[in-house]
């Protein structure tokens, strides 16, 4: 039995021609951590709102443990949602905020006490139980919101951009904590974010959305190493993947900017292509087949450095070790790891088929 099934979920808002979400298809196993990632307007909130029941589904169904809950009211779904804006009660202490839903549901006092304690320990809030939200930092507030969600022991957790109000360090810490709590509880989780790095570092599987249409579903590694189209290749990974117009010739060579980018492409038909290669797959080298460019910018990152190189009329990003001593204005040679070059069709931007 699949724990959660989304079968062709679609949404068209009134007076809008474009579908906000089209034929969304996903099966989720119990305990999985799924990230939905896409740029603004790709349909992430629409999907979440349909899952919680705040927005009506135009077409398709949503099954939770084989029960069709598509048209259930939000409160009958046993789904807990954590928002970006925390939504805590300002006049209540942390303890009362966490206990609130359980009190409303008239759960037994001792059970409430035990669950509050357990959630506070899991989310490192024990010292803060008597505080009011206004005296907490953003990260602490977010942890209270999570604690409030976990005491419900819902069938599904929906996290809507839960890290986006936090500064970089807290974002990382809270992300790790969310994953820890997930692993402890084995709670099935859907995490929605526009930030690809969060999706990639936290989730078991990532769903990439664009314009309401799923582009790819896979493990972070699959998405990064085998993108099925140019959008996924560009959206996932930083710096953005280098892309070039190119041509495959009859001898199997890939020609970019009139230079031979590789010789090993005879498995593809002769045609115009879009070639894409990540910054770490271009290497500074004077070896055979190298190209020359001029360094325009260097970004020191600590563990490595990113250099922008002007090669003819394109600017490309190359990631190198900090051992390579380079300077702006310097002429350098580079080679491309041709096994790591992705090829996409010029027409529909899909991964090119081999012959
Ligand atoms: P995201 O959360 O990824 O930014 P949304 O789900 O908010 O994307 O939006 C998807 C599309 O649906 C967008 O084109 C947006 O303009 C449209 N949309 C979202 N909410 C409404 C609404 N309530 N009424 C009409 N159109 C909407």
Automatic annotation (TrEMBL):
Residues 4-236 form the ABC transporter domain. PANTHER family: MALTODEXTRIN IMPORT ATP-BINDING PROTEIN MSMX, TREHALOSE IMPORT ATP-BINDING PROTEIN SUGC. Coiled coil: none annotated. InterPro entries: AAA+_ATPase, ABC_transporter-like_ATP-bd, ABC_transporter-like_CS, ABC_transpr_MalK/UgpC-like, Mo/tungstate-bd_C_term_dom, NA-bd_OB-fold, P-loop_NTPase, Transp-assoc_OB_typ2. It comes from Enterococcus larvae. Keywords: ATP-binding, Cell membrane, Membrane, Nucleotide-binding, Translocase, Transport. This is ABC transporter ATP-binding protein. GO terms for molecular function: ATP binding. PROSITE patterns: ABC_TRANSPORTER_1, ABC_TRANSPORTER_2. SMART domains: AAA (SM00382).
